[in-house]
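Sequence in, structure out.
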Amino acid sequence: MDIGFIGLGIMGQPMALNLARAGTPLVVWNRSADKAEALRAEGAKVAENTADVFKQARIVILMMVDSASTDLVLGRGTPDFAANVGQHIVVSMGTNSAEYSRTLEADIRAAGGSYVEAPVSGSRKPAEAGQLVGMLSGEPATVEEIRPLFQPMCHQTVVCGPVPSALLMKLSVNLFLVTMMTGLAEAFHFADRHHIDLQQFVAVLDAGPMASNVSRIRANKLLEGDFTAQTSIADVFKNSRLIAAAARETGLASPLLDACYTLYDEALALGHGPEDTAAVIRAIEARTDSGLHSPKN
């Protein structure tokens, strides 16, 4: 039986390609039709519209950028919604708020379908290599049914419990990731403005205990000035906003996240939204160059 896959963006396209190359029969759709051509070349069917995907596939994976685009492809709030999701398993791999996911599950179940929340940890390179980490939430039997589908995309999957546990896990992981990446950009800026040899800076970082796949990728991007997106500024800003909102809902302090959130907002305002998260250094540089900082002794 065909598996549906909707959303072939920065992450979705390499994920779907790994499924196709592993022999998974796919029917795919993307708003920008050209993104589907690589899937067609790997033997996937390309649907004319989202309804066509649901007609051909009982299990449909969504890798959408936000809740609005997810609702749109599902036809949520229209008569098409029940026809699309009834008797289907909808697997949402995008990052949305926990509350949104909770209400989406309720609506899908009320329409006679099943829902699995399945965000992933990783950026484009891990997606291309099939080295993402999947976090799964939903009814246990449904989670176990779809779990084998993740093998070509993820080197590990973790069952997190009921919805929205997987998304809360993803937001927790992303809080660490956002602050780590922003700290790297600030350290690079510090080294640069103190006229440190940046090749040596990266070499020392790579040789030390703080080195990771993330630091290596981002440090090289900073070194080369290559801000081609693995994960975009716009996406990190969205994730930071979701984390901040979840913290506020439960009365949690998030001082590091709040500082990062402001910097990514400034990077967006400077026009760096489509660029890689490493481009947050431009917001830090702008603060230095404008004198809008208040160092403390």
